[in-house]
Amino acid sequence: MRRADTLAEELIEQPILDAAAVESIPAPAAAQAGAGRNWLVPAIIGSALMMQTLEATVISNALPTIARAMHEDPLRLNMAITMFLLASAVFLPVSGWVADKFGAKRVFMLSIVLFAVSSAACGFAQTLPELVVGRIFQGMAAAMMAPVGRLVLLRTTAKSELIGAMSVLTMPALLGPVIGPVLGGFIVTYFNWRWIFYINLPVALVGVLLVRAYVPNVKEQAVSPIDLVGIVLTGVGLASLIFGFENLGRSVLPPPAVAGLFAFSALSLGLYWRHARGNPHAILDLSIFRIRTFSASVTGGAFMRIAMGATPFLLAMLLQIGFGMSAFAAGLMTFISAAGALLMKTVAPPILRRFGFRKVLIVNAVIVGVSFMAYSLFKPSTPHWLIMIVLAVGGLFRSLQFTSLNGLAYADIGQDRMSRASTTSAMAQQVVQSVGIGLAAALIHILMLARGETHLTAGAVSPAFLIVGLVSLVSIAWFVPLPADAGDDMNGRGRA
Question: What pTM did the predictor assign?
Answer without folding.
Answer: 0.69
